[in-house]
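2024-03-11 09:14:02 INFO queue: dequeued item NitT/TauT family transport system substrate-binding protein, len=339
2024-03-11 09:14:02 INFO validating residues
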Amino acid sequence: MTQKVQRVIALLLLCAGLAALAAYLWHGRADGNAAAAPETVILATNTSYVGMCPIIAAQQQGYFLRAGIAAQIQNHNSGKSALEAALQGRAHLGTVADIPIMFAVLDKVPVSVVATFFRAERDHGIVGRRDRGVTGPGSLKGKRIGVTLGTSAHFVLNAVLNRQLLSARDVTLHNLKAEEFAGALQRGDVDAVSSWEPFLDGLATQLGSNATVFYAEDLYEIPYNIAGSREYVVSHPETIKKVLRAVVEGARYCREEPAAAQAMTAAVMKSTATKWRELWPSYRFSVGLDQALLLALEEEARWAMSNQLVATVPMPNYLGAIDLQPLKAVAPAAVTVIH
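2024-03-11 09:14:37 INFO prediction written
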């Protein structure tokens, strides 16, 4: 065999070896991709609410995908509706404030909270008409007030009244949906509305110089949470951990990149309200589970029972509605609930 033939054979063997190596590497990479395929999670939330910034950031900045989650955002008009979607199996998880969780536990619905990711004090308040004599909290006696019964706005209204030594009997409540506030206030069907941002800012803008606005910043701090059915949370611990890792990054983005986070949130909210930009420094974008949530749920349960929104029952153990384990695995220092 000549040297030339030997060189050709050697070259062919080398090429064959390289081809086999490439095929092996490609096969391994393909298998790796298959093993790391992102898991679909349907997240029911309200993207018109500024508190959803960590969720929006986790989606738009790629934190969900990086954590192995293909998040599908299911939009709702309220946290109550979002939680119902999760509990009824139309979504895997929902974002919700504390009041709907409180009611779910009182109704013996098996719900599990896995994290709080947003808190705000100047988020709830009351907008009133000056021409109807609404000038401040003390002027609410005898007024007609629009509110969605059984919500955090209802709880805040009672807290405002209590501070003025008034009760619900001293006012006339009109049970309205959030989208009905503007028309009722404009027509004069009600003298004031108890609500939350961005509705407060929108209603104040609508009334212009005729508006009186006062916040419940020292009465109520809203905690927004991620929750789901107990069955789903218990049976998908690794999924929950992935979701929490992404939301932790989303919250960090909202804290550390305020200008970019505001622009991103505004584009998704599609709202003309602007007050939330001014309030942004007061917002707490941070993932955790703390004792304040338990205390709030118990206080709200007493309120619901005393206002006959539910039957009077022994105080439930709200710790049973909080699953600490996923967040303890992801960010142990973020869990400060006494247990």
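2024-03-11 09:14:37 INFO annotate: The CA atoms of residues 148 and 176 lie 5 Å apart.
2024-03-11 09:14:38 INFO item closed
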